[in-house]
Amino acid sequence: MYLPDIYDKFRQQYTSISEKYDQLGVACREAGPLDPKVQDLVKLGIAIGANSQGAVRSSARKALASGATAEEIIQT
Predict the structure, then answer these.
(1) What single DSSP character describes residue 2?
(2) Which of the four pLDDT bands, split at 50, 70 and 90, describes residue 37?
(3) DSSP annotation string for 1-45
């Protein structure tokens, strides 16, 4: 999976922060009733609204991997 160089460098330089950030992501995903597919579609919508091309591509890949259909992604 592609990750921007600056993100990789940050994770290498600040490993303890990166680990805590990953833990926060897991806790957020587990905190509510939404299943992973819906969570990924919501994140895709946020990325589209923010006009973040990299996040849109990443979120679309993750939504597909979590079971979203092409039609669900297009509607999002």
Answers:
(1) -
(2) very high
(3) ----HHHHHHHHHTHHHHHHHHHHHHHHHHSSS--HHHHHHHHHH
